[in-house]
Amino acid sequence: MNNLVLVVEFHIKPEHVAAFDAAIRENARQSLATEPGCQCFDVCTDPLVPQLFYLYEVYDDEAAIQAHLASPHFLAMDAETAAWVERKQVRKLVRVAA
User: Fold this and answer.
1) CATH code of the region 4-93
2) Using CA atoms, how far apart are residues 57 and 91, in angstroms rounded to an integer?
């Protein structure tokens, strides 16, 4: 079975970039440390547009994605940062080669 990938694009309000950066890095750290189905959780930024963040997450399957979305660290981060987000786009892909 192929892995599932989430690619998430965040546009953050400029005054919250530093706080969002810290929160999303901690979420990534906890996801990798505590979620067996999370294989990869990269946090990327655009060097020319500081308020633009990209996440690249690889999961074993849909159940692993749902476990991530229900995890206490994700729910806390999502609630904390919701007002900081101008817009967010999530794409779900199937990983066909590594």
Assistant:
1) 3.30.70.100
2) 11
